[in-house]
Structure formats: structure tokens, C-alpha cells
Amino acid sequence: MRIFEKCKFTKPCPICKTKKTGDAILIGVRGTEEGNIMQAELFHIECIELTYHKEQGLLVQKVE
Q: What is the pTM of this model?
């Protein structure tokens, strides 16, 4: 996973809804795959709080 340091957001982070500059990662949008290409959105690293559901093999982020 590549980290973009001091990234300037042009669209709000999907979790905190702000455009503040900060370290970020790109996360692919499910259902947008075309061959080896996928649309993605930037998320602040500090906003991500994943939970691993071992039985289902899922990483989950609650977004309110």
C-alpha cells in the first residue's frame, strides 16, 4: 500500500468529510474494475480504523 505524504485533497475524505492536507492512501472502489484498472478514492490514514472479520475474510471500516 503506497502512502501519499502531505497529500492535498481536492475532494473530501469519505470518512471525515474534510479536505485537510495529510498523509493518505488510495482505496479502490468495488465494482469499477476494467481489466487491471480500478477507480479509487483518497482517504486520510488517521481516519482509517479497520476491523478484521476472520471468519468472512473481510476488513471492515465503519463510516458514519
A: 0.79
